[in-house]
Amino acid sequence: xxxxxxxxxxxxxxxxxxxxxxxxxxxxxxxxxxxxxxxxxxxxxxxxxxxxxxxxxxxxxxxxxxxxxxxxxxxxxxxxxxxxxxxxxxxxxxxxxxxxxxxxxxxxxxxxxxxxxxxxxxxxxxxxxxxxxxxxxxxxxxxxxxxxxxxxxxxxxxxxxxxxxxxxxxxxxxxxxxxxxxxxxxxxxxxxxxxxxxxxxxxxxxxxxxxxxxxxxxxxxxxxxxxxxxxxxxxxxxxxxxxxxxxxxxxxxxxxxxxxxxxxxxxxxxxxxxxxxxxxxxxxxxxxxxxxxxxxxxxxxxxxxxxxxxxxxxxxxxxxxxxxxxxxxxxxxxxxxxxxxxxxxxxxxxxxxxxxxxxxxxxxxxxxxxxxxxxxx
Length: 377
Hints:
Elements: H1 2-19, E1 36-45, E2 50-51, E3 54-55, E4 59-65, E5 68-73, E6 81-90, E7 93-104, E8 120-125, E9 131-135, E10 146-150, E11 156-159, E12 184-187, E13 194-197, E14 216-223, E15 229-237, E16 251-262, E17 265-274, E18 282-290, E19 312-318, E20 334-340, E21 348-354, E22 366-374
Antiparallel strand pairs: 1-22, 2-3, 4-5, 5-6, 6-7, 8-9, 9-10, 10-11, 12-13, 13-14, 14-15, 16-17, 17-18, 18-19, 20-21, 21-22
């Protein structure tokens, strides 16, 4: 009898367990992993190096496409040009960095661009194997910025239709700032056009960032496949993190590059400069930027006093964290960023490039840095 009671009790417990379960084992929810960026290596291209009769420097933009690398040269003097290169690296660092060609941009009439008509800043290779590139123009000289499409041999294909607010204005407090326009350029992550941004606020939108000036809005702009400017979203620049020293007074921060990685999401480079420092005075940061819930401000003529929702941004990487690992402790004038080939471990690679300004103001570096990107969300 006692044995029967024990058996019954066991069956009863099994019944209760089965009746209280759906038969499915719920897996524990895993917390999403944080995005991280890891330093891999640095490469310095020699100063005053000539390649095919051109001085290599002013490398302001970089892109990678179909196994080939492209650098645009920020030189307003002819030849207005870009370089192609071969680069090889792995998780141990750079193995090869060699220039392979230099190509001169041409006008619509087929002639090479003359000196002074363009200030090249960013370069992207399209799905159609053409080049889209940006120029800041020369606002103080009445030269408009532009975005153009060219062939891989530099031939003119078309110019994008520029919104009036980005053109030179005869009014003192209206329009773009000199040396502060289309520094950034990206293909859309879904291959549905392009994105650009102003490096500095339009004059009517706000002040240039300083150590004390905090809320400084620039515009991220969508461009459709036909080359028409469309929706605009606000990106708020950080203030300059350190003051100018040694009796100098230059303090500035700007949005210098965008790299779309998902719908409405970008990696963004902010580069600030403070004069008087022997290590270059640059502070460079990579942010993750999301415009999904931001207000379209394309119809807002001035952002000062306007009501809008800005994009969100999250700091992913501060180059200050690796300054001690870089040549002479210098974080140089980093202005370009692109995805490269994935590493063997499946993580994405990032390569950034510094514009040395041809060492016009002080000795600078043609600096390349490769980074490892994990868990980009």
